[in-house]
Amino acid sequence: MAETVKPLVGGHVDFDKQGGLVPAIAQDAATGQVLMLAWMNRAAYEETVRTGRAVYFSRSRNRLWRKGEESGHVQEVREIYLDCDADTILLKVHQIGGAACHEGYASCFFRRVVCDRLQVVGERVFDPKQVYKQ
Question: Which range (1-10, 11-20, 30-39, 61-70) has the least confidence?
């Protein structure tokens, strides 16, 4: 029988353990495919919970990154899980546009290591040069 815990708030996640950021794994809710790994701070997590859309913290930009803000390929959050240490988040999402990866693949994990080489095992869903016009 499932145990119900307190209402979901940022206090459930241990943001202090790793300096304010925790890994957040996005997984396709329908297929189980791992789409990507990103980072969340408290503000990203709370906005994700409040809006139902995935929001991450971009370490390179040093700001919140609302998934799909440039590409339109947003992630609608279906379920949120925390690991046993409360320092890793799993988002089960519906990926709009079919691609989570900024390189145009459905998953960021589109390369498999075979011996000492990388093998591309995914197919591009979109051309990043067309989506991210700079």
Answer: 1-10
- Taking phi over 0 as left and psi of -120 to 50 as alpha, with beta for the rest, 121 belongs to alpha
Looking at residue 1, its pLDDT comes to 57
The span from the CA of 65 to the CA of 104, in Å, is 18
Give how far the C-alpha of residue 132 lies from the chain's centroid of Cα atoms, to the nearest Å.
19
Residue 13 clears pLDDT 70, i.e. is over it: yes
Instruction: Give the separation between CA 89 and CA 92, rounded to whole angstroms.
Output: 10
Q: Calculate the alpha carbon distances from 59 to 53, 56, 105, 120, 134 in Å.
A: 19, 9, 21, 26, 20
> What is this structure's pTM?
0.87
